[in-house]
Structure formats: structure tokens, C-alpha cells
Amino acid sequence: MEKHSKGLKIEVGLNAGDFLLEWKRSALVANYLADFMAYEYPHREMAENLISTVLNELIEAAYRLAVDRSPLQLLLRTEDGHLIIALDHQCQPGLSSTYREFVGQLVQGSDGPLYFQLLEAETRPEPLFNQFGLAMIAHDFSGQITVEDLGTTQLRTTIDLPTKELSA
User: How confident is the model over 2-24, as a mean pLDDT?
Assistant: First the structure.
């Protein structure tokens, strides 16, 4: 944890695992970080709920994409009215392009058609990597999601959340 010129910054590392078995541990990490970061905002309870939800959805997506026991590196920082969440993670062979295409569809359809399609779907899309949770971040919280290729199978998923409502 460090205080830098643009706001607060915290970095945490954990290992990917079976999300169904590890959900409690990942929720504990997400909730702790949300509680910690929420003190930056006047509407602390609303900030904590928002940050916790976004972190839980992002960590679930990374768990489902990652190679088992591979490292996940999570960085949160506040900057000029935004909360930036970056998660570095490995991606299972063959899922990287599917994941990147999905995030590209979220960016292109920022008005929500993909969100409503996933919301109303009777079956979950395959391969499953928490598509609905990511779509919810983009639609409900105005999160801008990007994916950056860090080489081989390593990706960085970044979520830029506006925090104006939390700061007012």
C-alpha cells in the first residue's frame, strides 16, 4: 500500500484456483480491498459495495480464464475521479482470443445490447468466464474494460470506474 501523488494505490497477489472451491478466499480478498479503498470516498458504504462487487466479478473471470495455480496480480489506484483496477493473469490456451473478442464487444456495445442478451439467456455462453459479471460492470457501473496482451498467455484486464457519484 502506498500513497502516491494521484491518490491511493494498493497491490495484492494471489493464485488462481478452482473458483467453486476458492470463492470464499477470493471474496475475502475483494471485500477487504473494497473496505480499505472505500475510505477514500465520502459515500463509504456505497463505495465499498461497488468496489467489492466489481472485484468479485473480475476475480471470478480471472479464475475461470487462468491456468490453475498461476499468479494473479491485482492493482487498485485512485486517479483523477476514477478508480483503476488492473488484474494481471494468465489465460488458458485457446481462451485469450475469445476473451479479448468478448471485451471488444462490450466496448462496442456500451449501450447494453450484449448485457441484455446475457441477462435474458436461458443458457450460459461457452466457454464460461463470467461474461455476465463483466457485462454488468460495463453496463451497471459504467466501467470501461480493456484487455492488454503482456506476452505469451499473460493478459492485463483493466477496469476504469468513474467515482464522481461516490465523491459528491
Answer: 62
